[in-house]
Each structure stands twice: as structure tokens, then as C-alpha cells.
Amino acid sequence: MTALVRQIFSPVVDVTGLRAHFPVLARLAYLNAGTDGPLASAARDAAAQELERELHDGRSQAHFERRAELTDGLRSAYADALGCDPSDVALTTCTTEGIAQTIGGLELAPGTEILTSDEEHPGLLGALAAVRSLRGVEIREAPLADLADAVGPKTSLVACSHVGWMSGSLAPAELAEIDVPVLLDGAQGVGAIDLDVHALGCDAYAGAGQKWLCGPDGTGMLYVSPALRERLAVWRRGYGNLADPQAGLDARVHDDARRFDTPALNAETVAGALSGIGVLASAGWPAVHERAVSLAARLAELLAERGREPAPRGPSTLVSFPSSDPPGEHARLVENGVVLRTIPGRPWLRASVGAWNDEDDLDRLLGTLFR
Fold it and tell me: Which domains does the chain possess?
């Protein structure tokens, strides 16, 4: 580690021990968890074990019992990360699925309004475009920081990022006090920063399993408050989200958030997700969050000192900074073993800093940028 980024951080996280779980870190300065987090060896092994079991034992009743056991475990692990009860968490395949389920399930009437911010991800914008096109709902944008004050008489839902994917800014705390439901896109929140959905005051929180929780692609979650749960229509019904599937046309959806579960998650994916989140949870969520946020803040300081003032951001794990040639500079960073991403439509590069990163990763980034 050079003097460039030598800094004292909380000793609670054994960084060397945590890094050892992620083979990619031995080769690359991996700063891209905002897209997909690094995959842990334990996650690969857990998925492989499930496939081996299926290969040798087949897939009959015992297989489905095993899958149910795994999904119960993953639901509980996600609930721990969200600060809520497992009964309020649905398993999804991605953040977008949870967002679409919530917005579509509200069945808003034509002429009503959804308020959103001017820096949202296509995963949310797609669902908003659909409800505008198919239901005649009006969509209005305002700056993320101003959303609480922008609520108007026609506003039926506020839907926005918890942590903005472009800049790392946070949704205003005042959203907890408004009188309309709030749906938060938590793709850059859950696993990255300390959160409690009850303290946030949101009615729904859609998150990703493959980003800051280091799970496989095709994993995610949706928290829905009991009050909002009763308002959401459940059009997609099947064996997995029915309380009594043998009742045929009279079958009822589950009373709790399982009614919003994705139709099917395979056992190997769930096992990999459960092992990935377990690696982080074993290090202690408070320590994981504190280290990641502190290291990101240090990177922002070092960039500013060298004339690359980051975009306005909050206490998050994302650091977006200006580049005169984002594609070219991105390619040069990749050539030097630094993985981050560009931001479409903005002259920025974005570094995603996790607790698994260390000061040498920052050195490698900065050394490439400023050599």
C-alpha cells in the first residue's frame, strides 16, 4: 500500500480475510458492485453442490423440499439486510421485477400521478413508462433532493431511488413523512449501506441480490408493508405464490409477502445467493457498511484533491467523477486491471466501493488515472 491512500479504517472487518473469499480481487481492482458484486468462492461451491445433488438424486419430492428450505433461508437473510420481518419480503429475480409488481399492482386510475426523480435507472423508468402507456397515469419528475416538497394533490405514489445510481446521492429523509405511498429502488442501497425499511418510512423497497449482496444474477427482493400489501393486486398467480394450490380456481394467494414471489427460483441460484450474503453477514453488517462508506468517502476526497471533483453524493458507496473521455479512459482502466463503469449520458466514470476493496485498489485506480 502506498502513502497515496494510506488511511486508518475500522479494524472490525478483517479485510484480508474478507477479500480471500472473492477470487477476482487477487487479479483486479474490482470497483463494479453497483453493476454486479464480486462472486464468492462459497457461492460457486454452494451452487455446484446443488447441481451435483440434482444430477445424482434427480428432482422429485426431496428436491422441492430442499428448494423450499433454501428459499426460506434466503428470505430470512434478505429480511436481516432490510431490517424487517421475513413475512414482509418476497423473493424476486431482480430489482426491476419488484418495482413492476408494485407499480402495476396499485392499478392506478388514468389522470393520477406518480412522482419520480430526474436521475432514475431504466429499471424504474420502464415500469413508469408502462403504467403511463397502459393506464394513462401521469409521470412527473423533480430533483431527487426535492421530492418530498414536490408531492402534489394528484400524487398517488412516489417512486425513486434510495441511493441514486448515477451519483450516489440519497433520497431525502423527509419522504418518511409524506401521506402517499413511497416505493424505493434499493438496487444501490441494500447490502451497501446501513438501512432499516421501517426507519425509512417506505411502503415498498425493491432490491437486488447480485449487486452489494454478491449473489448470482437472477436474485432480488421486494419488501412490502402490510398496509400496502393489501392494496396491491396480484395478477401473476401460480403454484409458488398460492397458499392452497390444490384448490384449483378457488386457490388463494399467500397472506404475507410470498404472494409476490417470482414464479420459480432454482435451487442452485438460491444456494449461491444464500452463501454469498452469508460471507458478508459473517463479517458483521455494521462493520461492512462502515468500511465501504468510509473507503468511498476517502476515494472522493482523493479525486477532488487531484482536480476530479466527484458528482454531489451522499454517504453511499458510489463515487462518480468527471472524465473528458469516459469510453477511452474506461478502456485504459480495464487494460490496467481496474473495473468500473461509465454512466450513459453523463461525462462520468463510476466507482463502486465495497468492504472487500482495500487501499491498494484505490491506488491502482488513481495511479492509472493520474500517471
Answer: 15-40+284-370 (3.90.1150.10), 46-281 (3.40.640.10)
| Nearest-angstrom CA–CA distance, 88 and 90 | 7
* DSSP-based three-state secondary structure for 34: coil
Q: What confidence tens digit (pLDDT) does each residue in 65-74 have?
A: 999 999 999 9
8 A C-beta contact, residue 290 and residue 91: no
Distance CA 195, CA 306 (A): 32
**pTM, full prediction:** 0.94
Radius of gyration of the chain (CA): 21
User: Of 110, 72, 120, 100, nearest to 204 (Cα)?
Assistant: 100
58: left (phi over 0), alpha (psi -120 to 50) or beta: left
Q: Please give the pLDDT value at position 4.
A: 36
Contacts of 204 (CB under 8 A, 6+ apart): 98, 102, 181, 182, 183, 184, 222, 223, 224, 225, 228
Amino acid identity at 156 = S
> Grid cell 447441481 — which residue?
51
